[in-house]
Structures are given as C-alpha cells and as structure tokens.
Write the structure tokens for this entry.
Amino acid sequence: MSIRVQIADDHPLTLIGIHTLLENRANLDVVAQAHSVEALLENLQRHPCDLLLTDLMMPGGEQVDGIRLIRRLRTLYPQLAIVVVTMLDNPALISSVLKLGIQGLVSKRGLLNDLPKAVAASPRAPFVSASIQHLLDSSAALHGKPLLQPEQLSAREVEVLRLYGTGMSIGAIALHLSRSKQTISTQKSSAMRKLGLDTSASLFLYIQEHGLS
C-alpha cells in the first residue's frame, strides 16, 4: 500500500525538486502540493495523507510562525508523520522544532541524500541532517549548557519580549512602558544576545515557543 504524501513550500523550485525526488519511489504517492499555509491546511482537509513534507517558514495569514503551525498540525492530525525541510540555522529554534515529535529535520542543502532517509525514519528515531546535527553539537559545546530559558532573563527584558511578541513596534513599546526607544532597543538586543538569537524572526519564534506573547 502506498504512503500518501503532501508537500508544502513557498518556493516553486523546492516543490519541484522534492516532487522529483519522490516520484520515482514506488511506495509513495504525492496527493497534494501547497505553496502557503492556507493552501496546506485546505489540502489536508480535502486529501487525507500519511506523511507531510513541509517548510517551516511560509507566508500565510496568522500562521506564519512555523512552530505554531507544527503544533496545530499535531493537534489536528496526531497520526500525521511530519518531515520539516528548512534552511533554519539557529540552534535554539532547531531544538524547539525537534521537541514537536517530527519524523525528520532536513536541510535544504542536502535534500538529495537526506530526504529519502527522513521519509524512511520514524518519530521514535527522527532523522536529522548531518549539517543540522553539527550545528546543534557545536552550539552545545560552545555554550556548555542549554540555551537560556525566559526566567533567566531580566524582568524588564521579559517585559519587552512579551510586548514585542504581540506585534508592538519598538516605538510603541517605549511609549507603553514610558521608556526611551533606545532603552527598549537595548533591552531587546540584550535578550537576543543572551538567547543566542540573531534575527527578529528567530526572536519572534522563540517568544511563541515559550509562551511569552
């Protein structure tokens, strides 16, 4: 019996590449493709499947947060096997994704060799691309301890992150807290440095993952 597969990625060439890798496997049947979160959710309702291969960051209304998307899929389709295909290179976010019970985490740089291995894996022993595992190992060696949790930030840093997670700008947060924009920017940057995050997008994902918003 064939495994029913859906693919989701907002880059057309990636969709074509993944489909090409899968189409020659006799036991796989690609039943739907999507280039946005809305299309993915609609496809899952219309076309039952056993395995989802999806990018983590795609356009799509309120569901652009990849971690929140995977959590939602876990709730709606608890038996669905999920392989995340990504260019993600932040150790904190990678660790968060792996905690969601996915079947595989594949770097887009190694699709040709790694995707078939992830498809054949299981949630009990998920496949992780060597480049991603190396990133995790290097981070652990560098930090010597797990990345900081929210309670290890200062109270003011957490306060700023909570407001930032609601979508408020630096200026709006400064006005709300009666602090200068420079102070708010410094507190945001300090929190990011402590957490090992280097972009505002990765900070937003961290905020969502740890329930700070």
About this structure: The mean pLDDT is 85.
